[in-house]
Amino acid sequence: MTRPRIRHVIWDWNGTLLNDLDLSIEVMNGLLARRSLPPLDRARYHALFDFPVRAYYERLGFDPVRDPFDQLSVEFISGYDDRRFGAALHRDAAPTLAAVRATGIDQSILSAYRHETLHEIVAHFGLTSQFNHIAGLDNIHAHSKVALGRDLVARLGVAPDEILLVGDTLHDFDVAQDLGVACALVAAGHHPIERLRKTGAPVFTVLSAFAAAHGF
Ligand SMILES: [Mg+2]
């Protein structure tokens, strides 16, 4: 049985459209250095990063007694936000969004990033008009996008099997499974291709390859 035609694409933001892998590593290395903990490079980050972010912080070696998770979150987000305009979009992000829009397919963002900051940065890149909905979390703790995703799908008025979620992490795959929507993964962000391939979802190296495969 062929899947119904896709009518709506839900995009992840960080790592999928925004190329913020190195920025995230650099900001986290600041937290680690201030506590004399070993720094991250891309390979170690790719191996350790995960949702919920709390477990990832523990794997980095932070002492949860001396450094409660909530305080580490504040320190990371504050460091990230100070430099948030230092990360660029992936080179093929804006052309891919425009190509999807040109086919008449609607698009939204579902992000674990804080709602207000998400709106601000999407506007900074001139992309606001590409999206019907821009949904971010109401807190900085990046626990899960599942509840937010359910709210978004309910608002779209589109059957789940006509929705495609595009992300860069295993959490995006888990969210898509929970929502009952199709999933495509792009290995240009926060998780490496070998971890993404284990999901069984289609994995693309870059957004332009995703776009070509879908005829956008
Ligand atoms: Mg992401």
Keywords:
single chain; 216 residues; alpha/beta; Rossmann fold; 2 domains; six-stranded parallel sheet; two-stranded antiparallel ribbon; 8 strands; binds magnesium ion
Q: Summarize the main sheet.
A: 6 strands, parallel
Mean pLDDT: 94
Task: Trace the largest sheet across and list its strands.
Answer: 5-4-1-6-7-8
Query: In one word, what is the shape?
Result: globular
The amount of beta strand, in percent, is 15-25%
Detail the poorly predicted runs: none
How far apart the termini lie comes to: 22 Å
- The total of beta strands comes to 8
How large is the radius of gyration? 17 Å
- CATH C-level class of the largest domain: Alpha Beta
Q: Given the structure, what is the number of helices?
A: 10
Assembly type: single chain
Task: Spell out the helices and strands N to C.
Answer: EEHHHHEHEHEHEHEHEH
**CATH evolutionary superfamily of the largest domain:** HAD superfamily/HAD-like
Our count of domains comes out at 2
Give the helix/strand class.
alpha/beta
Ions, cofactors, ligands: which are bound? magnesium ion
